[in-house]
Automatic annotation (TrEMBL):
<dbReference type="InterPro" id="IPR029479">
    <property type="entry name" value="Nitroreductase"/>
</dbReference>
<keyword id="KW-0560">Oxidoreductase</keyword>
<dbReference type="GO" id="GO:0035527">
    <property type="term" value="F:3-hydroxypropionate dehydrogenase (NADP+) activity"/>
</dbReference>
<feature type="domain" description="Nitroreductase">
    <location>
        <begin position="17"/>
        <end position="160"/>
    </location>
</feature>
<dbReference type="Pfam" id="PF00881">
    <property type="entry name" value="Nitroreductase"/>
</dbReference>
<dbReference type="InterPro" id="IPR000415">
    <property type="entry name" value="Nitroreductase-like"/>
</dbReference>
<protein>
    <submittedName>
        <fullName>Malonic semialdehyde reductase RutE</fullName>
        <ecNumber>1.1.1.298</ecNumber>
    </submittedName>
</protein>
<comment type="similarity">
    <text>Belongs to the nitroreductase family.</text>
</comment>
Length: 197
């Protein structure tokens, strides 16, 4: 397992600084207890009006290989290449409408918060998690009969850390490289648009 703490400008909690998105997985299965723990963390995420619009579809290779393969087939070829050993995929979806049938403009935001809780819990358990947008949403929607009032947002691969040296050279270099983010001044403004914080 490679640890890649974020090179922050001020100290932040290890759970946040240590979380990253690896691509090297082992094929060792995840336990049901581990999956329940991550989903429980997601369940307690905050949401607008406590609507809890997120819905997670879990594809566990060890309990339902057929469904896992159907979900895996919707990943773009690049993501299929490095996710081959991953034992679990989780689709992140969200209900677009409120209980009153109105558009919930916070649905995707809330589902993202729940997904972040899930991946932080994975990191706390010593597991690898990688969130992806690279999959065929219409194909996924069709394969799993996703209702029209549900948005399919992302796919998360989960598993135990694998041997980074088994990745192809480009991905190996990415997984070993120093993590980077935009400077704080580019993402945080003070009191007005583009005004320095």
């Amino acid at each position: 397992m490679i640890t890649k703490p974020a090179p922050t400008t001020v100290p932040i909690h290890e759970l946040l600084a240590g979380r990253w998105s690896p691509r090297a997985y082992s094929s060792e299965p995840l336990s049901r207890d581990q999956l329940h723990t991550m989903l429980e963390a997601a369940r307690w995420a905050p949401s607008s009006y406590n609507a809890q619009p997120w819905r997670f579809i879990v594809f566990d290779r060890t309990t339902d290989e057929v469904a896992f393969k159907r979900a895996f087939a919707t990943l773009v070829p690049f993501n299929q290449g490095w996710n081959g050993p991953a034992p679990v995929l989780i689709a992140v979806t969200t209900q677009k409408l409120t209980s009153k049938g109105e558009i919930n403009r916070c649905a995707a935001y809330d589902a993202g918060a729940a997904a972040m809780a899930l991946v932080l819990q994975a990191h706390a358990l010593g597991l690898a998690a990688h969130q992806m947008s690279g999959f065929d949403v219409p194909a996924f929607r069709s394969a799993f009969a996703i209702p029209a009032d549900v948005d399919v947002i992302a796919m998360i691969s989960l598993g135990h850390y694998g041997d980074v040296d088994k990745l192809d050279p480009v991905l190996r270099e990415r997984d070993k490289s120093v993590r980077q983010r935009q400077p704080l001044g580019e993402i945080a403004y003070g009191g007005a648009w583009k005004k320095a914080f």
